[in-house]
Amino acid sequence: MTLSPSPGRLIHETARLRLRELTSDDAAFIMELVNEPAWLRFIGDRNVHSLEDARGYIERGPVASYAKHGFGLWVVELRGTPAAGGHGEPAGMCGLIRRESLPHVDLGFAFLARHRGHGYAREAAAATVALARERYGLERLLAITDPDNTASRAVLEHAGFTFERTFVWSENGKEQALYAKDLT
């Protein structure tokens, strides 16, 4: 008997995108995303080099966050583009991350190179900010990015975040730009 892919729980839909929870069925997508040159340069190597590694990343990261906090990073699918298992084509990830090293929840996002430049990150970030306020009752969001990542900085500024300061982040020892947005 072959098991059919189990779709992740739908979180939200926009005009062009669907945000849903990641599942182990998304391992190939995650392996591709976290090994893209921009991810490796601006976010860092997550040592995901096999489908097994990708499944572990999903389980230890997003799935554990869903269980603990009720939110996490979600896969961003293109609506109306069928892919394997009946899901839409995965374009990237966007969501909310509770990090011990930050005083507030962090907005995180990353998109495959072939899906950048179409406004998907802006659309997903705006939807995630609205969810943070309306569904999760958060009063403030943070976001961190490499100071040289001008595309991510533009997405954050478009979503209403303001630059606060640079700092050396304990998680990777690199200088990061800290952005914030009050949701009240």
Question: Could you list some keywords that capture this structure?
Answer:
alpha+beta; single chain; five-stranded antiparallel beta sheet; 184 residues; globular; 5 helices; Aminopeptidase; three-stranded antiparallel beta sheet
Characterise the protein shown here.
The protein is α+β, with helices and mostly antiparallel strands. It contains five helices and eight strands, in the order ββαααβββαβαββ. The protein has helices spanning 27-33, 37-42, 51-69, 120-134, 150-158; strands at residues 10-13, 17-21, 73-82, 88-97, 106-111, 140-145, 162-168, 175-182. A five-stranded antiparallel sheet has the order 1-2-3-4-5, sandwiched between helices. A three-stranded antiparallel sheet has the order 6-8-7. Helix 1 packs across helix 3. The longest helix has 19 residues, at 51-69. The radius of gyration is 16 Å and the shape is globular. The termini are far apart.
**CATH homologous superfamily assignment of one domain:** Gcn5-related N-acetyltransferase (GNAT)
**How do the strands line up in the largest sheet?**
1-2-3-4-5
Q: Kindly name the structural category.
A: alpha+beta
Task: Kindly report how far apart the N and C termini lie.
Answer: 51 Å
Low-confidence stretches: 1-5
Number of strands: 8
**Helical percentage:** 25-40%
Largest sheet: 5 strands, antiparallel
Rg from C-alpha positions?
16 Å
Shape: globular
Instruction: Kindly report the CATH topology of one domain.
Output: Aminopeptidase
Number of separate helices: 5
Beta-strand proportion = 25-35%
Helices and strands, in N-to-C order? EEHHHEEEHEHEE
Q: What is the mean pLDDT?
A: 92
CATH domain class name of one domain: Alpha Beta
What is the CATH architecture descriptor of one domain? 3-Layer(aba) Sandwich
